[in-house]
């Protein structure tokens, strides 16, 4: 067991932030889709949307405002169901974006040589990318709104901030790697830090920022070398969103049915 001093707590916070941000999930699926189809800026803004929701949850959890979610199964079930539906809607939008991107790559150039950007609205209605578009024609702001709204309807994210998040400010010790998704049980006890220091919180959000900067950049760099990479990632993102959406929807409906 390694207990870190205050001088190195910030570095542990960075590790914690990266460990929480990196695992595959709905947020990273949206970041990936935005990055490969609309560029690094769009991907970063999507990540910023998810992080903004984290900041909101942390502030609210620290003053006890969102604790009612844990104590109100109806609210939790409804949030899960709504979040699941949103993921399915966004998955549909990701499939459409992937098709438009593929069509844009194969479509011949226009007579003036400018080609087509593949961003065509076929009039089929709401597909998730229409969420709060407000005339944002370049689409960069859509990822921010999608990630932010999706994070706000994620009870698991709320519970994280009610438990682990709040403990970051309370004096004590935190097993940093124990909360890593999937592998947490195997990593428990390997990195324990003293909590209650602002440096830990600063390091935590710095780790998240490093991820939302580096992850889109990596995807964009690979996409510039492999033509089919963008549509492939978009389809994969759609599959992830669809999978999580079905799980969330089933969980939410099951919770509500049990209360009926």
Describe the structure.
This protein has helices spanning about 5-20, 25-40, 40-60, 70, 75-105, 140-150, 155-165, 185, 200-225, 230-260, and strands at about 5, 170-175, 190-195. The chain has one domain. The protein has a 3-stranded mixed β-sheet. The protein is mainly alpha-helical and about 260 residues long. The chain starts with a strand and ends with a helix. It is built from 10 helices and 3 strands, in the order βαααααααβαβαα. Mean pLDDT is about 80; it is low at about 105-125 and about 130-135. It is globular, with a radius of gyration of 20 Å.
Question: What are its keywords?
Answer:
260 residues; 4% strand
In short:
This protein has 260 residues and is mostly helical. Helix content is 69%, strand content 4%. The chain has one domain.
Supply the helix-strand structural class.
mainly alpha
Number of domains: 1
Question: In percent terms, what proportion of residues is strand?
Answer: under 5%
Helix count, DSSP H or I runs of 4 or more residues: 10
The residue ranges in which pLDDT falls below 50 over 5 or more consecutive positions are 107-127, 130-137
Query: How widely separated are the two ends?
Result: 47 Å
Which strand order does the major sheet show? 1-3-2
Encode the helix/strand succession as letters: EHHHHHHHEHEHH
What is the helical fraction, as a range of percent? 55-70%
* Count of beta strands: 3
Gross geometry: globular
């Amino acid at each position: 067991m390694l207990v870190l001093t205050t001088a190195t707590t910030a570095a542990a916070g960075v590790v914690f932030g990266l460990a929480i941000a990196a695992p595959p999930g709905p947020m990273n699926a949206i970041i990936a889709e935005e990055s490969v189809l609309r560029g690094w800026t769009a991907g970063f803004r999507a990540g910023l949307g998810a992080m903004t929701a984290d900041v909101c949850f942390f502030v609210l959890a620290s003053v006890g405002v969102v604790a009612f979610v844990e104590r109100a199964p109806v609210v939790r079930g409804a949030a899960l169901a709504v979040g699941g539906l949103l993921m399915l809607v966004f998955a549909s939008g990701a499939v459409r974006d992937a098709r438009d991107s593929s069509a844009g790559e194969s479509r011949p150039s226009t007579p003036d040589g400018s080609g087509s950007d593949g961003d065509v609205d076929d009039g089929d209605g709401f597909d998730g990318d229409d969420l709060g578009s407000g005339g944002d024609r370049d689409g960069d702001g859509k990822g921010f709104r999608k990630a932010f709204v999706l994070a706000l309807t994620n009870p698991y994210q709320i519970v994280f901030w009610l438990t682990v998040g709040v403990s970051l400010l309370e004096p004590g010790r935190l097993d940093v790697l124990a909360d890593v998704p999937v592998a947490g049980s195997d990593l428990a006890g390997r990195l324990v830090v003293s909590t209650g220091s602002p440096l830990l919180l600063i390091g935590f959000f710095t780790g998240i920022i490093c991820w939302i900067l580096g992850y889109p950049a990596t995807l964009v760099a690979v996409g510039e070398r492999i033509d089919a990479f963008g549509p492939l990632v978009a389809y994969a993102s759609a599959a992830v969103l669809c999978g999580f959406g079905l799980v969330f929807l089933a969980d939410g409906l099951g919770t509500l049915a049990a209360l009926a």
